[in-house]
Amino acid sequence: MLNFITWDVSPDIFSLGPVTVRWYGLLFAMAFVLTQPIEKYIYRKDGRTDEDVDILTMYMIIGTVIGARLGHCLFYDPGYYLSNPLEILKIWEGGLASHGGTIGILLSLYLFCRKYKFDYLWVLDRIVIVTALGGACIRLGNLMNSEIIGRPTDVAWAFKFVRNNELFNGVPAYVDPRHPTQLYESLFCVFLFILLYVLWKRGAGQVRGLLFGLFVTLLFSFRFLVEFLKENQEEFENALPLNMGQWLSIPLVLVGIAVLFYAARQPKTPRKVTA
After folding, report:
1. Domain membership of residue 56 as a residue range
2. What is the value of pTM for the model shown?
3. I need a surface site. Which of 123, 195, 233, 265 has the fewest CB within 10 A?
4. Which tens digit of pLDDT belongs to each residue from 143-156?
């Protein structure tokens, strides 16, 4: 009886001359296309305009791309990229880190709030709702690329990534059925989106920091745990007691908990849009 799913999906959708359209790029773009109307709805309900969201989205895109790329280069292979800095610009060759993307988003939104006089936590509480949905799209992109795969397993929903030729302990990845950790993370992000949206609808957005703190705590706690099911992305991680994704998740979980404690001290704080 078949006890695994054969995953043989091409990462390319189609090619037109020298231009190739890939699933990852499409899903990365969809992360912004799908979430912008939702964010505009949230902003209208909270008394803001569509123009605010349009400007905010541009800051988000720039912060996400730069942060995720620099995060991958500096967290996972700093020696190579610092010796070959021009390689950092070759984003089309792949290599984005979600932790770096998180830092990039936080910094870009800080700049947005400083320039346009928004309250930082007010913005973060609303942006994390759609960020969760965007994260689900990006992890589906990883699945289409057959990358960031899980460890071998015999669960019935295991995936055999036949297009992945990476070696793990000397064995090609395509040999064994593996945990589809990209799918686990994508589904968890959908759950987070629903949870945060429902809480916002019930007025949780009135408590500064509550939604942001909950998002960061839950997302990176899950990320810490799911890393136990993943193969390490770089060889140096094999010598560490925890992999790089887990080390990077710990401070973000602590930040989330600290923000939740802050929010708990002001449960009836009125909405504050501007700084």
Report:
1. 21-118
2. 0.88
3. 265
4. 999 999 999 999 99
